[in-house]
Amino acid sequence: MIDSILDKADAIVAAWLPGSEGDGVADVLFGDHKPTGKLGFTWPRGDSTSFERGNAGYKTLFPFGHGLS
């Protein structure tokens, strides 16, 4: 779970299935470009028992809109 590595990392990049955009992800990882982006959803804590806001057990790790610009 991402929660367990947060205090050990300087930064975390979340990238899914980059497809033809893999070069762009590599450019960020190798420092050729500064990362930008905001979460389009609320990222739950690893021990959350629910992914739906308002439900018992729902815990937020990063809120909607968290990120860099």
State the gist of this model.
The chain is an alpha+beta fold and 69 residues long. Helices cover 12% and strands 13% of the residues.
Hey, roughly how much beta strand do the residues contain?
A: 5-15%
Main β-sheet description: 2 strands, antiparallel
Task: Assign the structural class, choosing from mainly alpha, mainly beta, alpha/beta, alpha+beta, or little secondary structure.
Answer: alpha+beta
| N-to-C SSE string, H for helix and E for strand | HEEEE
Structure description:
By secondary structure, the chain is α+β, with helices and mostly antiparallel strands. The protein is built from one helix and four strands; from the N terminus they run H-E-E-E-E. The strands form two sheets. The protein has a two-stranded antiparallel ribbon with strand order 1-4. A two-stranded antiparallel ribbon has the order 2-3. The chain is elongated and about 40 Å long. The model has no long low-confidence stretch (mean pLDDT 84).
Q: How are the SSEs ordered, and which strands pair?
A:
Elements: H1 22-29, E1 37-38, E2 43-44, E3 60-62, E4 67-68
What characteristics describe this protein?
4 strands; 1 helix; elongated; alpha+beta; 12% helix; 69 residues; two-stranded antiparallel ribbon; two-stranded antiparallel sheet
